[in-house]
């Protein structure tokens, strides 16, 4: 077992884990942050996307021990209290989710896209950038609309930095 | 229309928990003292189990127990069932082999369940599962249906030629006569490719046993928890229904695959008592590919007879349906009663005859997947119609219009009585939205860039609102397909609705609340929808077959009628008026011709304090229930138009625009309905262009991960233009037809009709991958060069 410490959603956390423990397992099982989901075994579906030190990461593909000292943000850490992050609000406003299982990963990826590409995104860019997140319910139509609107709202609110 | 009533695009009530990571899916739940299950699965497609040696696994760290099919038998736990009896042409019953939750004697597909290892941690269970030594005697795999039907290798002794049934529907003599007088016959051989449903949440289960109460609880990823309880109780024999609670919390998509009662859930709930601790299992994605029921997988020869003017005279279909190694819960019904009765499509076809053979193979069980039989039927009809029009040199639109059913009600030769529809209206609207007039110009522009552009139509019909209980009972179903609802009005006027429908993405918490808000005049945030727990909701049949609006909401509507009727009685006492003079409108009970009125919440309070009618016949309280059994199927219909561009250099197909015009009758929430259409189209385009489950000749599944099975991604699809027409359904109180499956039913033939239009010839199989399209395009290029 290995002792690890990191900052998750602004709080210092630590835990004693088997070295093979994945970041997603540490988040879900040790910290009970179950908003981050596991939808596949091959780093394809993106349901597990979180931010590690400001970058989107598939948490099923990263060992918890390699996040020692890192700052991790999960879907639970995105809203400011009861005030939704603009990307969360956009997903609700544009019906960008149905069953909700892929949604946390979609939203975390979408915020990362805006952080990297800016707040004015065209449909082609959004679709290309979402290639690593699979949704089976929505046909992506409303997710694309939500990301576009959420990006604009982030730009208007200067939220990129606040997201981390 | 109020801002939250019927027809309003109300933002979803359930979304807050999902977008903040607070959803509660089965894997998010843990029970105190919980253990973890890992299944030992067959690596062979077909083998005799000579022995199972669990000694090394039992000695492995953290292992609590290893259980096999013998342990299930010893506890008299029954096998998994198929709930729909199909009869052969000669009237004899289908040949269904035993389906134990853990294999006994033989394994029949790769992924079949041999044993379960239960351990302190999930990792320990998986580690130990690899140490269970199973001695197999391999038998030949049989993947191909035609090979299976030779009977050289027998999968179940009860089915000597691996034929589960040999079923038919329709009038053979009349159909043969129609073909005999036909001027033209169009013939097609069709492969409807096998698909993996792939809800993003893999299946999961937690079995729990309270020895003090002798009470079992199963948390599971189910679309129909009451049906699961019924089957686990009455057929599998886990416990009587009053001692078994099934909870299906937030469920991350289903698409049919979570209707069924599977081995893993059965084993978890049984094993919880056996080991005296809760048992949790969570599928990984590869297990989902191996052991979730697959969809489709038909081989069909279809023929369409037409007269000299292009009027359809008859349709003849011979289908082989792969049912896999065991019959899953509703598998027998999918290629029979959910398929052949839809073969009339939107067309007036005087004679139809369909023959279907259900076939065992050494592959995963095949059962309902979004559309379930209806996409297969629509693909047959819409490919035949398109090809017939082209062969006859007729415009595909004119050919369709010439053959559309125009008078309603319409009795088809294959059971269904279509109640209402306006097929021309949907086609005309779709053509306008798709700018079909501009297609020739766009095709020329594509050609200038060296691209091939095609336009494909699909005019579909489906039978939803499943289903009138007497009708399905007469066709072999073991259950009735009504729905239940209970409306509980609290003393302060807030409302809880308990429904037997189950939401796993459909947004029932919003649409059902809209109905309540609309009818009772109660703000939508004062309405709660309760579902997914057999201890809360008395009974229900669950959600599939686009039935929750047409059947589930009809039950709620009936219960609301009763609430209003009782509210009038209470209001009459409260306002000292005659019940006949009480009117209810916009959330107020008023005495007609006076200015006396009470708000709904005030009447609710009067109902509970009962001061004004104590000692009278009227009972206190305001709670009403209803069961609704539909009197007919509903018949959503519509037209989808796919326009696409093929790059003959690479074989890549790009969908340029997609137009859908659907007639769903009354729409409660257009935003949610459009979302259902979008998702269905994506799954249908997935079938047409990307997806396909593939077994090799040894029965090994070679598409067992997202690295190998091509799921549609955001950059594979366009945005969709979605419109509606409306002919409200006459057979239910709300006029709803259902919208959940339409997109998946309509879209595959639209894509293939567009590809074949672009390529100028008819032979391309699904999935039309870049390789397949490239090969087809190479054959076409010389002709294009000549043009």
UniProtKB/TrEMBL annotation, chain A:
Molecular function GO terms recorded: 2 iron, 2 sulfur cluster binding; metal ion binding; oxidoreductase activity
UniProt KW keywords: 2Fe-2S, Iron, Iron-sulfur, Metal-binding, Oxidoreductase
Location of the 2Fe-2S ferredoxin-type domain: 2-78
Alphabetical list of InterPro entries matching this protein: 2Fe-2S-bd, 2Fe-2S-bd_dom_sf, 2Fe-2S_ferredoxin-like_sf, 2Fe-2S_ferredoxin-type, Beta-grasp_dom_sf, Diverse_Oxidoreductases
Keyword Iron-sulfur: yes
Keyword Iron recorded: yes
Protein name: Carbon monoxide dehydrogenase
From TrEMBL, chain B:
GO terms, molecular function: iron ion binding; oxidoreductase activity
Domain spans labelled Aldehyde oxidase/xanthine dehydrogenase a/b hammerhead: 20-140
Record key words, sorted: Molybdenum, Oxidoreductase
Endpoints of the signal sequence: none
InterPro entries: Ald_Oxase/Xan_DH_a/b (IPR000674), Ald_Oxase/Xan_DH_a/b_sf (IPR036856), Ald_Oxase/xanthine_DH-like (IPR016208), AldOxase/xan_DH_MoCoBD1 (IPR008274), AldOxase/xan_DH_MoCoBD2 (IPR046867), AldOxase/xan_DH_Mopterin-bd_sf (IPR037165)
PANTHER family associated with the record: ALDEHYDE OXIDASE 1-RELATED, XANTHINE DEHYDROGENASE
Protein name per Swiss-Prot or TrEMBL: Carbon monoxide dehydrogenase
